[in-house]
C-alpha cells in the first residue's frame, strides 16, 4: 500500500531577496513524501505566485490525486492528471526518488539516459543598490559564476559594481521582465564590455516579438516566456 504525505515548510532567507517584481524574506516550500514497501521517496516544490500558485492551491491540487496516487498512479498517468506546475513537479520527483530507492538504481539509469556530467551552478545576487551589490559580489568573488538580479534603471551601474567586486567571476544577468525594448540597444553592448555572458528574460513575456530578426551583443535567454 502506498502512502502520500505533503506538508509545508518555511525556509528563512539570509536577509531580503529582491527581484524586479518584489522581495521576500522566506521561501514557502511544500515537501511531498511517498512511502511504499518500506521506502520513502521525497521531493519538494515552491509555489510560484507569478503563475497563480500558492501553498493552499498546490496542496489542493495534491489532494485531488491523493486517492489515485495511493492506489498506484504511475508517473506517466500523473502527467495527464495534473497540469504542469509545482504540485505535479513535487509528486513526479518523489516518484523518481522512490523508484530509485526501490530498484537500487540512479534516476538517470531508470530514465535510460547517459550519466549527467557535473555542472556549475550560479550564485544569485539579490537586486539592490550598486554599493550593496558590490559588497555581495566581494563576498562571492571566489565563486566561478554569479547571476545578478536587475530591474532596468541603474542596471549598468549595478553590473559595474559587481564586476569591480568580483573581477574574475563569470557574470550573467536576470532582469525578470524588468526592461523595455529600447533598453536592449543601450545596455547590451555596455554589458558585453563588462564580460556579461547572457541576459535572462529582459522583456515581459508577451513582448517577445521585439526580439525577432535582431542580433544582439549578448545571448538572450527565456524564462517567463
**Which word captures the global form?**
elongated
Segments where pLDDT lies below 50 for 5+ residues? Answer: none
Strand arrangement within the widest β-sheet reads: 4-5-6-7-8
Query: How much of the residues is beta strand, in percent?
Result: 25-35%
Instruction: Tell me about the largest β-sheet.
Output: 5 strands, parallel
**What does the average pLDDT come to?**
95
User: What pattern of helices and strands is seen along the backbone?
Assistant: EEEHHHHHEHEHEHEE
- SSE-based structural type: alpha/beta
The gyration radius over C-alpha positions equals 21 Å
Helix content: 25-40%
Terminal residue distance: 41 Å
Number of helical elements? 8
Topology, number of strands:
8
Could you please describe the fold and organization of this structure?
There is one protein chain. This protein has 225 residues and is α/β, with parallel strands linked by helices. Helices cover 34% and strands 26% of the residues. It has helices spanning 55-64, 66-70, 75-81, 86-103, 107-111, 130-139, 155-165, 183-193, and strands spanning 3-19, 22-36, 39-45, 123-125, 145-149, 170-174, 196-200, 220-221. Helix 8 links the parallel strand 6 (170-174) and strand 7. The two termini are 41 Å apart.
